[in-house]
Write a structure and sequence with these properties.
By secondary structure, the chain is mainly alpha-helical. It has a domain of about 70 residues. It is a single-pass membrane protein.
C-alpha cells in the first residue's frame, strides 16, 4: 500500500494550497474527506460481505456433516433394534417350542401361591371419617371468623331471618 509520512502529507498540502488557492482549499479538503470516507465504508462492506459468505459456506458444510452423522446414528440404532428384535423372536420361538405344557402354567402361578388378581393395586372404597374436613382444614378458626366464613350450617329460614332488614316500630 502507499506509505504517507508526515513530510509527504505536508508537501501535498503545500502543493494543493498553491494550485487550488486558499479560498477553495477547505471545500476541496472536505470533499476529499467525504470521498475517502465513502471509499473506506465501501471496502469495509465488501469485506463484511465476503466474510459472511465464507461463514455461510462453513455453516452449510457443517450442516451437511451433521445430517450425515445423524443419518449414520439413525441407521445404526435401527440395525441394533432389528437385531435385538430378531434375537428376541428367536428366543421366544425356542422357549415356546421347547416347553412341554406351553405357557399355560405361567398364567396359573398366581392361584398356586394364594395371590388374588384384585389384591394388587385395587382396594375397596372406604368412607372418610365424619370430621375429615375439620382435620384437613389448615385455616385457623379466628381467621375464618374475622373473614366472615361460615363455620356452621344454617337452615334456610335462619339464613333469611339473619339477613332480613329491620323494620322500625312506628
Amino acid at each position: 500500500m502507499i506509505d504517507f509520512g508526515f513530510d509527504k502529507l505536508a508537501l501535498i498540502g503545500a502543493v494543493a494550497l498553491v494550485v487550488i488557492g486558499p479560498e477553495r482549499l477547505p471545500r476541496v479538503a472536505r470533499t476529499v474527506g467525504h470521498l475517502i470516507g465513502k471509499a473506506q465504508r465501501y471496502v469495509s462492506d465488501v469485506k463484511a460481505e465476503v466474510s459472511r459468505s465464507m461463514e455461510l459456506e462453513e455453516l452449510k458444510k457443517m450442516k451437511t456433516e451433521m445430517e450425515a452423522a445423524a443419518r449414520d446414528v439413525g441407521q445404526t440404532v435401527q440395525q441394533e433394534v432389528n437385531s435385538a428384535g430378531q434375537a428376541f423372536e428367536q428366543t421366544w420361538s425356542d422357549v415356546s417350542s421347547n416347553s412341554i405344557g406351553g405357557l399355560g402354567d405361567i398364567g396359573d402361578m398366581g392361584g398356586q401361591h394364594g395371590y388374588d388378581n384384585n389384591s394388587f393395586g385395587s382396594s375397596a372404597y372406604r368412607r372418610p371419617k365424619k370430621n375429615w374436613r375439620l382435620k384437613r382444614g389448615a385455616t385457623p378458626q379466628w381467621y375464618k371468623q374475622q373473614q366472615g366464613v361460615r363455620r356452621h350450617a344454617q337452615s334456610g329460614a335462619a339464613r333469611v331471618a339473619r339477613f332480613r332488614p329491620v323494620r322500625p316500630n312506628i
